[in-house]
Amino acid sequence: MYLAIVLLLMLILPVVSIAAEAMLTADSSLVFLIGKWFVFWGVGLRVLIAGIRQVARPAFTAETIFGITDPKAFHLVEELGFGNLAISLLATASLLQPAWITPAALAGCIFFGLASYGHFHQQSRNRLKTIAMVSDFWIALVLAGYLAATAYSALAAA
After folding, report:
1. Which contacts qualify for 32-35: CB closer than 8 Å, 24 or more apart?
2. Is residue 80 domain-resident?
3. pLDDT tens across 129-148, in order?
4. Number of domains, the chain
5. Is the pTM of this model over 0.85?
6. If residue 87 lies in a helix (H) or strand (E), which one and from where to where?
């Protein structure tokens, strides 16, 4: 189930949204559409779901993702959830405020890039951590590409 959700939010729904909007509107660049839809689905909704789960059920994340059963850790997971909610709400709201796409992409790129680095360096990695590592690296790479293309376009226009 986790893999299906990750594939939907990190690949399938963004690609379908990009294709649909590209067919419906001719005035949007591919770079803009990639940023818009990967930020919305990959950062916005994926992190929103994680944040809600971490705030509502911190024991689940502590135990299944981090392998920590000590109830003292649940408060830290809840705090992580608050940060995830903040990032996800910025990314989700970027659908209504396109000027927020780049800041949300930057926050998401840093978050997912560091998270994938952390997963990579863990000695014992289970299936869930491996899926998280690969998907975190993927979205960080897509967002880095978007940010680089956006920066290049801004420099070229200046």
Report:
1. 32/101, 34/142, 34/145, 34/146, 35/101, 35/102, 35/105, 35/143, 35/146, 35/150
2. yes
3. 889 899 999 999 999 999 99
4. 1
5. yes
6. helix 74-93
